[in-house]
Amino acid sequence: MAELKDGSALGDTAEADKATGSSAYAQEAPAAAAAGASSTPPGSEAAAAAAAGSKRELEEGEQIAIKVVFGKQSTTTSRPALSTVADLKADIAQHTGVPPENQKLLFKGQLKDEQTLQDAGLKSGSKVIVMGSRPEEIKSAARVQATALGKVGGGSGGDAFEDKPATEQWCEQEAHKKVLAKGRPDDGWPGIKERQVPLRDDQTYIPGLLNSQGTKVRLTFKPELQQLWVGSVKSTQKVPYHTVTKMESQLIKGQEEYSILRVKVGASAHSSLWLYYVPSQAVSGIKLRVLGVGALI
């Protein structure tokens, strides 16, 4: 009987301990779960704080210093990283005198007005090339072109080089035939049929051409000034790239290794520069230099 009592007592004690342990576990488990839920992996808090700080800096207007190059001019302007390319153009207009609507900004391609500087990949020290012309330069170019576009025949009868029906090739039109009859200048490049050859970086001019007056001229690229020069012994026409709206060419019948090149300037149908005996293999290279990749699409 005594053993039964002892065993009973031991059993009662074990049951009591079990009950006590279960109660304690029940109380501790929620606390542990709560603690676990609030814990974060090591380093994540620091990363989150850094990201928040970076975002806050941008929102507060983190400034980036951008080098702006326009022709021979170079300046540095500071803008918030989240400001737009249109905002940058407004700053550039104050430094260069080129209105925003006349500007093309180049940085790994042409920048779009709605882009933020951050989205465009600009950082402090980045260099942006400005293409464009001041209003007075455009007016000056227009005056020069009005007097030097070579209106053969002249008079009040209109431009002898005006557009003709599409079925009539330029080389068959009377005004162009008169120029072609003067012959190709001796110092011109040899032409190549049915092939386009990229211009090398060191090929900055094309000699041995004729303008619409039949005068020998040289076509020169001035990327540092963003200008195209058509120069003779007596004078040079300077055409800002920005004012060139289109470039067209046609092969010269019977001399297909050479072409006639038309450079349209501005919106007027009559504001064009005509160049003759342009090596046909160089036509695409000329368009690429002046108008960019879009001219070949």
Automatic annotation (TrEMBL):
Pfam families referenced in this protein's UniProt entry, alphabetically: PH_UBFD1_C (PF25343), ubiquitin (PF00240)
InterPro entries: UBFD1, UBFD1_C, Ubiquitin-like_dom, Ubiquitin-like_domsf
GO molecular function, one term: RNA binding
Amino acid composition bias (Low complexity), ranges on this chain: 21-53
Chain spans, region Disordered: 1-57
Location of the Ubiquitin-like domain: 62-137
Full protein name: Ubiquitin domain-containing UBFD1 isoform B
